[in-house]
């Protein structure tokens, strides 16, 4: 799932080498923490959060079919 997130975010940012995805897993949920260069944070969030919502929708859909846990994507600043 981390690779999926990186693949989605990489074309959006100016500094693709700064993309980092970490996972925090508990009994009933998985939190993917996305970190990008501070100059790219606006591109990843998008206007009114539209890009972030799209990323989350894709990850939720892929994770729900892959694992039986609730998936979350946090964009760290």
UniProtKB/TrEMBL annotation:
Signal peptide: none
Domain of life assignment: Bacteria
GO cellular component, one term: cytoplasm
Gene Ontology molecular-function annotations: RNA binding
UniProt KW Metal-binding keyword: no
Cross-referenced SUPFAM superfamilies: Prokaryotic type KH domain (KH-domain type II) (SSF54814)
Localization terms from the record: Cytoplasm
Keyword RNA-binding: yes
Protein function: A probable RNA chaperone. Forms a complex with KhpB which binds to cellular RNA and controls its expression. Plays a role in peptidoglycan (PG) homeostasis and cell length regulation.
Subunit structure: Forms a complex with KhpB.
Similarity comment: Belongs to the KhpA RNA-binding protein family.
Protein name per Swiss-Prot or TrEMBL: RNA-binding protein KhpA
Organism: Kurthia zopfii
Gene name tied to this protein: khpA
């Amino acid at each position: 799932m981390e690779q999926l997130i990186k693949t989605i975010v990489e074309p959006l940012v100016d500094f693709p080498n700064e993309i980092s995805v970490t996972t925090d897993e508990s009994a009933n949920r998985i939190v993917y923490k996305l970190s990008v260069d501070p100059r790219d944070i606006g591109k990843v969030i998008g206007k009114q959060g539209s890009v972030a919502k799209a990323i989350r929708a894709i990850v939720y859909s892929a994770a729900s079919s892959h694992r039986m846990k609730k998936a979350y994507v946090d964009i760290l600043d």
